[in-house]
């Protein structure tokens, strides 16, 4: 009985988190912290830092990573499932409804003007995101080489993004191994 | 039937190869969605604006949207399931032994290569999207004399200033929309 309660609670809490965070990614962390640390006391402040670190070094959206991780800690596999479905449900419902609305308004001339302006604004948001990622990235000759190499190869050559990602991960591993050996 | 499978696999790949979430997904999404002809670049930018103004993670939003447009409700579900499945499975594995995972030298090494790579990849995606916004008719056309170019540039610069002053993205999108409508009404757009 108690397990069912905590699973329902996980589902509802993460649905709330999914409903009230705009933009996704790191924007979700403060709300996740308030709900799961301050309100429900499922995990500690230190756990939140761990979760951010793990979410960063595993693939996929941060919200899904965090929901699955906390859900698993609190309620095992079913808990992970409940939290993950919960955090996605508002998105899916809202986007599904909006896609009909978007299709209906696509040809309204006002909307077209608005989106011409919006596109320039969105570019600026990407510039901002790029800057925060740059700040979080390690610095140094190796990092700058990877950064510039990844940029140049994808921007000017028909190279697959997956290939670039695999190559850069391998380069990072190789570098760690070489430095580790030299250290001994 | 094929389309559902294709949506699922494509978004599975996107979910598996993006580290960092949010805009880190942009390069993969741009490449895959364009390669399949599901969304052109302009539609992708428009959808980023929609995703910033609606709740939930970008990955889930765009998977649902692209999936629904290509394969209805079931298509949306297939794409969304695909994009979250790698995260879900990997976290379940990591959650059991996360202390070990966190201090693993190979994982940290891979991250030292991945973090700067994501910066470079997003920069490349940005360049490609900027081309569509600033030079919509193609690179060989002359745009530098047109009022449309300067208004677009103005919105872009103003939005950058606001974004770095930590204005909320939704506010920036709304202001850009208002300027767009005004520019349209006086015949610039």
Summarize, please.
The complex is a heterodimer of chains A (184) and B (189). By secondary structure, chain A is mostly helical.
Describe this protein's structure.
The complex is a heterodimer of chains A (184) and B (189). Chain A is an all-alpha fold. Chain A has 3 domains: 2-105; 106-136; 137-184, no CATH class. Chain A is built from 7 helices and no strands. In chain A, helix 1 (2-20) packs antiparallel against helix 2. In chain A, 43% of the residues are buried. The model of chain A has no long low-confidence stretch (mean pLDDT 90). With 189 residues, chain B is mostly helical. Chain B folds into 2 domains: 2-134, no CATH class; 139-189, no CATH class. At the A-B interface, helix 1, helix 3, helix 4, helix 5 and helix 6 of A face helix 1, helix 2, helix 3, helix 4 and helix 5 of B.
What is this structure's SSE topology?
The complex is a heterodimer of chains A (184) and B (189).
Chain A lengths: L1 H19 L8 H11 L5 H13 L4 H44 L3 H28 L4 H16 L4 H23 L1
Chain B lengths: L1 H16 L8 H10 L5 H12 L5 H39 L1 H5 L2 H30 L12 H18 L4 H17 L4
Helix pairs in contact in B: 1-4, 3-4, 7-8
Instruction: Categorize the overall geometry of chain B.
Output: globular
Show unreliable segments of chain A.
none
**Largest sheet features of chain B:** none
Task: Give the percentage of residues in beta strands of chain A.
Answer: under 5%
Termini distance of chain A?
55 Å
Biggest interface found: A-B, 97 and 107 residues
What gap, in angstroms, lies between the N and C termini of chain B?
41 Å
Mean pLDDT of chain A: 90
Rg measurement of chain B, Å: 19 Å
Number of strands of chain A: 0
Uncertain runs of chain B are none
The total of helices of chain B stands at 8
């Amino acid at each position: 009985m108690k397990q069912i309660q905590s699973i329902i609670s996980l589902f509802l809490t993460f649905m709330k988190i999914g409903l009230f965070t705009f933009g996704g990614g790191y924007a979700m962390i403060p709300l996740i912290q308030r709900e799961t640390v301050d309100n429900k006391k499922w995990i500690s402040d230190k756990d939140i830092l761990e979760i951010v670190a793990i979410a960063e070094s595993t693939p996929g959206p941060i919200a899904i990573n965090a929901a699955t991780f906390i859900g698993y800690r609190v309620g095992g596999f079913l808990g992970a499932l409940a939290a993950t479905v919960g955090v996605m449900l508002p998105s899916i419902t809202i986007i599904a409804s909006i896609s009909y609305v978007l299709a209906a308004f696509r040809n309204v001339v006002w909307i077209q003007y608005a989106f011409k302006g919006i596109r320039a604004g969105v570019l600026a948001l990407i510039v901002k995101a790029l800057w925060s990622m740059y700040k979080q990235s390690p610095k140094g000759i190796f990092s700058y080489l990877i950064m510039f190499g990844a940029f140049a190869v994808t921007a000017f050559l028909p190279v697959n993004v997956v290939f670039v990602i695999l190559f850069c991960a391998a380069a990072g591993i190789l570098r760690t191994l070489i430095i580790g050996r030299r250290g001994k | 039937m094929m389309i559902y499978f294709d949506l699922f696999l494509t978004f599975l790949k996107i979910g598996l190869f993006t580290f960092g979430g949010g805009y880190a997904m942009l390069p993969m999404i741009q490449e895959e969605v364009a390669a399949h002809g599901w969304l052109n670049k302009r539609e992708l930018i428009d959808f980023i604006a929609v995703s910033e103004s609606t709740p939930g993670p970008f990955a889930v939003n765009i998977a649902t949207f692209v999936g629904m447009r290509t394969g209805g409700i079931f298509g949306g579900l297939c794409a969304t399931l695909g994009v979250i499945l790698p995260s879900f499975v990997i976290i379940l594995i990591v959650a059991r032994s996360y202390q070990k995972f966190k201090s693993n030298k190979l994982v940290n090494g891979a991250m030292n290569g991945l973090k700067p790579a994501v910066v470079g990849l997003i920069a490349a995606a940005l360049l490609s999207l900027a081309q569509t916004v600033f030079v919509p008719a193609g690179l060989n056309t002359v745009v530098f004399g047109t009022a449309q170019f300067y208004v677009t540039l103005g919105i872009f610069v103003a939005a950058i200033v606001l974004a770095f002053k930590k204005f909320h993205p939704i506010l920036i999108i709304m202001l850009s929309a208002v300027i767009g409508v005004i520019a349209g009404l006086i015949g610039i757009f």
